[in-house]
Amino acid sequence: MVLLIMAACCGTVTAGEYDFTIPEARPKPYELGARLEARSITHRFDETSARYRLIRFQDDPGSDAHDWHLSAELSGKFRAGMLQAVLLTHHEFADTYTENEWTDKIYEGYVSLTPTPHLTLDAGKNWCCGARAMPGTRSALSIRPRTPTTRR
Questions:
Q1: How far, rounded to the nearest angstrom, does the alpha carbon of residue 26 sit from its chain's CA centroid?
Q2: Residue 76's beta-bridge partner residues?
Q3: Which pLDDT score, from 0 to 100, does residue 88 have?
């Protein structure tokens, strides 16, 4: 009797597939992105220590110092037909006790032309990471850089 009730209640349950794409939306030919970061660091000094007296003998910053680090990573991508342009930059401002410094770097900046699916021509600074091997495999042993102490 219990088996009949369980068999009657347990039917097959089917779940439909959900598609979250909007059919009316068209992809834009560009992508823009940014990552912003702000950090503040407070250093507390022990004015009675010998190290403090050796390093700071000419100037007296007081019992604490503050550092500010502001950074922004900006990225942009533009696609038009078979042409694609990519730019990724990093900008950082550090305001420390010793100096104020701007650092600007271009991580990626290239133009890519893809006339066929099997042919791509790139020009510019393109960051590319190669294939990585699992540790302990034969290919991992051949990829390691050689040092003067390494046997051949």
A1: 28
A2: 32, 87
A3: 93
